[in-house]
Amino acid sequence: MNYMALFYTHSGAIKYDRFIKSNGYPCELMPVPRKLSSNCGIGAKFSFDGNIKDIVSEDIEKIFTVENKNYKLIFEND
Hints:
Helix content: 10-25%
Strand order of the largest sheet: 2-3-1-4-5
Largest sheet: 5 strands, antiparallel
Strand content: 35-45%
Structural class: alpha+beta
Distance between the termini: 24 Å
């Protein structure tokens, strides 16, 4: 499944990109689509097949599933 993670800070996005890639999953840092908004403006688009809760970090603000440019919020950090 494809996901878009939004972050509180740029450094959090970079740290998460390294984490995902070190676990063998493809990841691309990119500007956050305007309709999703974000504190830092950089998001990580990645693919992952396991339980999303296993890869949530404290740096993540929100996670959306991505299907044909449609986004569905599945996680929000309080």
